Amino acid sequence: MLFNVAGLIQEGIGATRQHQVEGLLVGDDGEPEPVSGVVELLRTKAGVLVRAHLSLKEPEACSRCLKPLQETIDIEFEEEFQTIVDLQSGKPVEDGNDEDDFLIDENHLLDLTEAVRQYREASAEMQPLCRPDCKGLCPRCGQDLNLGECGCSAGLVDDRWAALRGLRSETEERE
Q: What pTM was computed for the model?
């Protein structure tokens, strides 16, 4: 997601550009994720303010039953990208950029990839579900409980509760 902002930087503060985005963003796992939306670029004193309204479709797995699913993530952010080279002179800008700043490279290309990745990670659900009432997998045999009950869970009790089960039996005998 590269934007050449050399023309925008030559204009005065307040100049804007708006771009429709349709494409693929390469995810952390190397799989391309469809991304679409609008990106607005606004010239500032120190660089370019980016206002992004994007939607990504990310392949995920249900956190309960592990079925694959497509999660739609809506991302909105505003970030200022700092110039590192003066367009007129070609000399480095002595502005003391922080290492966490988003930067416009020496060729005046603004790369949104890292900003979109960071906001995608912050916006993604921590435990995506295939549906809200997903029952998940049986912890003993791995049966998908959405397809039906498994036979292994009936009568199985954690051994740590065996002493309490013995007390229950004694109480029932007294009655």
A: 0.73
